[in-house]
Amino acid sequence: MSALIDKLLPESLPEGEPGLDVLRRKAQKILMQHGFPHRKTENWKYLPLTLLEKREFGTGAASRDWPEPPSLPFESGLVHVHNGQIDPSRCRLPAGVTLRGMTSDDVDIGALNEQGSADAFAWLNLARFEQGWTLRVDSRVDIPLLLAVTCDEDFDGALHPRLKLELAPESRLELIESQQVGGAGLLNIVFDITLAREARLTHLIDRAAGDTAMIQRTAVRIGAAADYRVFALDGGGRLTRQDLIAVLEVAGGQATLCGVGVLSGRSLVDYHTAVEHRVGGTRSREDFRMLADDQSVGVFNGRILIVRGADDSHSEMNTGNLLLSDSARINTKPELEIHAEEVTASHGATVGQLDDQARFYLRSRGLDDDQAQALLKYGFAAAVFDELQAGAQRDWLLARLKEAL
Length: 405
Fold this sequence. Notes:
Blueprint: H1 2-8, H2 18-34, H3 50-53, E1 77-82, E2 85-86, E3 97-101, H4 120-127, E4 133-137, E5 145-150, E6 158-159, E7 162-167, E8 172-180, E9 186-195, E10 200-208, E11 210-222, E12 227-234, E13 237-248, E14 254-263, E15 268-277, E16 283-292, E17 297-306, E18 314-323, E19 329-338, E20 344-352, H5 356-364, H6 369-382, H7 392-404
Parallel strand pairs: 1-5, 4-7, 5-8, 6-9, 7-9, 8-10, 9-11, 10-12, 11-13, 12-14, 13-15, 14-16, 15-17, 16-18, 17-19, 18-20
Antiparallel strand pairs: 1-2, 3-4
Helix pairs in contact: 2-4, 5-6
């Protein structure tokens, strides 16, 4: 992947805070030593990075005109990331939320692999780091916060936004991450989240990437009796990769990871999740489903790690997948790595097609075949969002699912 390094890694790095300069140089050194992943790199074998090698990336210059952010049918705050940049004057921060520039103390590289290429894009993000932002939540926020990520329709650059979200003890937030991007560039995002004692974060993701290559690493550290819940609706794009890591560090922590990929055309969506039970008395649950039509490709790799001594950990993972055409492909791989004895852990994985008997039954009740298929697909996908609390946000996400189908 030397050609990709030539395209994406600059010869000279930006200068700034001394601590950040040290991190940039370290990231560049690791990238130069190990390069980018390839087909023989286990966790990247289904992602054709040769697509990036074939692209010519422009400057990714800032847009003169900021578009309107996605509209929501309910009141919300706003942080708008356009072409990789945030203009604080355009933010609407709810009471209890603050935004500031990121420093080297905000950058967490402790979990990144320094001995190989598995985390190459996270290192690239750091090597190209210019300005990141830290959001701090200090109380129970009454309205959702919309994190809107957009790009110009002719965007052809390579951008590397970096964000950190900190939730203080006993704080609450509902975050809606909407990524509606255009162009054929690269958006390489790193998003670090920390939940302090008894904090609770509900994280909704609504993504449609088009021709843009989207690569995102979201890492969540979950404190004592804290609760992280993510519900993702991914419409896919030409190349989409989401790494989602949840680390349960203190007893009482809980993580719920749920997602749906609705794929068509030649889109590719690759989800890699990792839930790490570092102590006992923690719980996690995963439910991911993909529907692949046309020539699309879906990938789900879910890993559960329960370390030695983390007794009384409880984890459950399920992945269900529907192939809607003969040319679509889905690769699914659940992994359990358990080093403790007094635990409960389970996983299940299925790949199939729409049930012909169910289609016949619905047609016998007056629906045509298209309506029957649409109803079955919606029922299969919507079940992932059953644990999302009833209300305007859940209704909005289900409406978005109907549009995607």
